Amino acid sequence: MEVISAEQESATAGHVTRVCQLWLKALPNKICAKIRGIARMTRELGQDDPRRIIHSLKVGLALTLVSLFYYFKPLYDGFGDSAMWAVLTVVVVFEFSVGATLGKGFNRMLATFIAGALGVGAHSLATLSGRKGEPILVATFVFIIAAIVTFMRFFPKLKARYDYGLLIFILTFCLVSVSGYRDEQVLKIAHERASTIIVGSCISVLVCVCVCPVWVGEDLHNSVSANMEKLGIFLEAFGDEYFKESEAQSNENNKSFLQGYRSVLTSKSSEEMMTPEEIRGKFQVPCKMVSQECSKALKEVASMLRKMIKTKSSTLHTAASVKAAAEEFKNLMKPNIWEKTDLLEIIPAASVASLLLEIIECIEKIDEAVYELAKVASFRSRDSVVSPGRSDFLHQRAVQQVSDDNNTDHRVITVAE
Asked: Which class for 290: exposed (0-12), middle (13-18), buried (19 or more C-beta within 10 A)?
């Protein structure tokens, strides 16, 4: 028995040794594969939006500049250890776009000024009650202010615009009022904190504005036009996809379009495909016509918005075929036409027709809004000569992902110039 157990132990030890050897041999390959994956991801992030690399360099530049308050003795003597607040301000205030940096810097400075003043006032009132009553009053003020301001953060409008400022308000008020109990120079504390935050915010804004600024308006401009084109791509193939008789008749060349609107079409139920051919045939022609014309209109509007070119009239209103198809839809949905037909058989096709009518109204509103924007913003006329300008490579990449991505059902796309 002892011999058998010894053999089993040796076999187990040999197996463990072989497993360890195999793991050690595969370890370098795993590490290399991991490094290659990280490098590939880094390259893709930089290629998707080169401004990310520039933003990283800008943050490093801003932190280097604000660190001079520690390196140079004259600057350090003016602020002392409080200069660290300037460094922290740059870290938390610096954002990707100019507007976001300005908003965060303004929130931080305004909250610091108001909270610092209130902290000094609370400390002054607390000192009037004597040494024993001072901590009680300070704790009471901190409790009341923190509770009120924290509750204010739940208001939707305040949370959307001033949530960061309210958070800094609580932090500054507690810092000034509580530290004043042990340090009598409470005014100096408030002054140093306010000064360093102003310096940090100003350095962040200057670097963000002066070095390759990113304006969120450009992102919004290109995002709206790209989304219109995506919706146009969806409408372009909607009619053919909905009215196909079987999966075998699906056009393989349009599979790239399916990725753009597959999430919408997956919501249709199996009853829609069971609609009688007679009913489907009556709705098929106007549905396809509306889909094609709406797609053309959206693509035209997106192109006009992206290139900032105005037309003589709005796009969709000039399409007589859309109006004719809409009228045909309305006539088909009159009850007297389907007197001898089971209404349950009409509902699937009629629901699609109703949705398309709503889409027409929405596209008309988009068309009118862009047309009015073109007039107010003085877009160039289509007949005028347009210079090529800068290449909108990120916009082209967004459209390419919509039309070429066949591997994923959902992709978040950030578009900008």
From this structure: buried
**Are 138 and 184 in the same domain?**
yes
Q: Which two tokens stand for residue 45?
A: 């992030």
Report the domain count for the chain.
Answer: 3
Residue 6 maps to a domain: no
Amino acid at 307: K
Could you give the CA distance from residue 282 to residue 278 in angstroms, rounded to a whole number? 7
87 and 140 fall within a common domain: yes
Residue 395, domain extent:
216-404
Q: Which helix (H) or strand (E) holds 100?
A: helix 98-127
Q: How many CB atoms lie within 10 A of CB 145?
A: 19
CA–CA distance, 198 with 193 (Å, rounded to integer): 9
Q: How many helices (H) and strands (E) does the chain have?
A: 16, 2
Residues 237 and 124 in one domain: no
Please write the tens of the pLDDT for every residue from 72-118.
Answer: 777 777 777 777 888 888 988 898 888 888 888 898 889 988 988 88
C-beta of residue 279 within 8 angstroms of C-beta of residue 341: yes
Q: How many CA atoms lie within 13 A of 92 on its CB side?
A: 17
* 8 A C-beta contact, residue 197 and residue 112: yes
Q: CA–CA separation, 285 vs 292, rounded Å?
A: 11
The CB-side HSE value for 339 (13 A sphere, CA atoms) comes to 2
Q: Which of 59-68, 128-137, 211-220 has the highest mean pLDDT?
A: 59-68
State both tokens at 404.
């070429």
Specify if 346 maps to a domain.
yes
Same domain for 125 and 71, yes or no, is yes
Q: What is the pLDDT of residue 335?
A: 61
Residues 244 and 310 in one domain: yes
Write down how long the chain is: 417
pTM above 0.90, yes or no: no
